Amino acid sequence: LPLLTVFRLERAEDAARRAGLSTQPIWRKLWDDVMKTRPPNSESITCWRKKFLETFFSNVLHGVLDVSSDWRLNDRHFSPLLHSSPHVSQLTLCNMLQGAVQLTAEHNHKVLENLAGSLRILKFQHLLSCDQSVRRSLVLLLHRLIHHGSVSQVSMYSWPVPDTVLLVLILTMSAGFWRSGSALARHGSLCGLCREEGKAQESAQEGAERGCSAERERSDGDNHQRSPEEADAPVNCVLSGPRSPPLRNPAWEETSSQVPCGHTSVQGGSSPRPSSEQPPCHPVRKTRRRLKPAVGRKRRCLRRSRGHYADPEDLYDFVFTVAREDSSGLLGKTRTTEGENTENWTSSSPGSPCTGHAGCKKRGGPAGIFSLKAAHRFRSVSTLELFSIPLSGETCRTLSNLLSSWVSLENLVLSYNGLNANISCILSGLRALSRQPECRFRVLRVSDMFSHMPCMELVRCILGALPQLHTLSVSFDLKNQLEGSRPEGNPSCSQAEIPESCLEVLEIRFPREPLHTAFLLPVLKASKSLQQLSLDSATLPCPQELGLLLEVLKECTPNLKKLSFHDVNLAEHQKEVLLLLQDPGLQEITFSFCRLFESSTAEFLSEIINTVKRNSSLKSLKLPGNRLGNHRLVALADIFSEDSSSSLCQLDVSSNCIKPDGLLEFTKKLEGHIQQRGGQIPFTHLRLFQNWLDQDAETAQEALRRLKAVCSVVNDSWDSSQAFADYISVM
């Protein structure tokens, strides 16, 4: 097997498995020889075959790897992209999107088909502006991988000056919107899957037309007695007849008049229906093309009279046309006659997600809603992540309206987007989404440099708008320089009642704000299902505050299993720390960089050890960054002594100034306790990141070798010379 090329090794995989042979060592050696790097989180890699082929695909696609450089990669039977593509579950496209151009080339058709079945995560990183031909390639790629593929997550990273048109295009197609089938056909790029779907629609529509024609013939003699609205009924029958394309999930059909594409009264001429009776949001252009000339002229004139584009259904051309217009708006200005009352993203009419708060103010002009109303709705992703991409007010309004009907969305991550007051606009869209009966939104993570409002106030706003959330993470580095700023026109979130929520995980990173239990109390009372709470970078305004917090947690969160404090000074709160460690309900406790032993005595460490020994429910104890040093680490081994009833499985002592001799002594003491207990202890995982193990490599290797016979050890090769100041402080 080691003498096989990648192609032949891949073909021999099944035979090797049947023979009981593992090829994992060979793929790992291939990685070391070809990639010449250590992959991140290599300890968690379970299949080196998949890891190698996935990275190999990406490197070949981006021109990083030359297959002629290694004989194992150079096989005339082996097409690098074709044979590795079935193993690719995540792919990153960078810079000028050269990878998108290559994947949509005709000779890579089979590669793209393979990716449509295997790819789950699509990432964009360091994007740059590109010409229209590259954007067309991107459109075709997104259409195949998202709308007709298996991609469930789209992530974008590091785009300091985003190309608005390109950003909106990616967001819009991720939400499942694209131009209609008829517009595709006019541009000669109707994909095979859309063509098959169109045929199915045509059959259903022709049946509807025949039924309407028969009805019209039967009632032709009675038309002079009917109102104009009744006379238009056959038109509405054709326009909103039953359509069931095979690829459309019912979750993506619009069921509310709040959704951008559910405006039947505008398109059909009939009176508005109740939201529960809205027809599915399916494209209607093909039906209009086949109507009788008189009816077709009536529809087109109706559209012009309302100030719409002459061809509003082509989202792709709309986005790229308005990008060339002189407009300060996100999607350009509408082509309307003077004095017309055009709809826009921030309309205050019922169902509009944006309500005109600060950062989400009304503007006359953005015309994206016209395109979205006419666009075809396809499959959409369930996770959207935006990292380090500034979002303007117009972009936030567009995203808000996409979110309002994005019923497949389950996870949203907005990180360092400079939202400030525009967070209210995003929340408006999410609030509208939460009212959709098909809504599956469960996870929201928001992080930024500056906080627009106090963290607890923002948390209350979010939970008030989204009570169905299961996970909420709010993180800010610094306070906003403009103290007291609030969204205009909004009642103070601190006064709003919080409905009972489904929250299970709450993570708050305070920008050095005081942690007032009184502000956290309403959130905890409304979160009876809370299982995990993380408080980061908070300050305790008075010595009694932590005690009050523990009382509230005990009273309001009976299901709490994990509690984490990070960068919170607990040096003067030894009593509260011991109370937490003896809590029978907690299974995981984290004190990360909390200065636990800054002013403590040896008695405090003994009390911690004895408390943990008596607690049979605690499974994980994480103490990174607390300056344990060698002697405290050695003492912690007594948690597993013969008289202990502890069930502790995981211990994290990263960043604790531990030297190789201290680790070896800890190991010997642990081995002694194991021997006393007949070789059985619950301890299974030890984390040792960023300790001083490089000071004596031989002793460190012996300690690690003996430890790995006892438990799983995770460590790294860290340069301890960077920690000289810490070393001085614990001498």
From TrEMBL:
Residues 254-278, 342-352 have a biased composition (Polar residues). Residues 283-299 have a biased composition (Basic residues). SUPFAM superfamilies: RNI-like (SSF52047). Residues 202-299, 331-358 are annotated as: Disordered. One of its GO terms (cellular component) is cytoplasm. The keyword Phosphoprotein applies. Keywords: Leucine-rich repeat, Phosphoprotein, Repeat, Ubl conjugation pathway. It comes from the Eukaryota. Residues 207-229 have a biased composition (Basic and acidic residues). This is Leucine-rich repeat-containing protein 41. It comes from Notiomystis cincta.
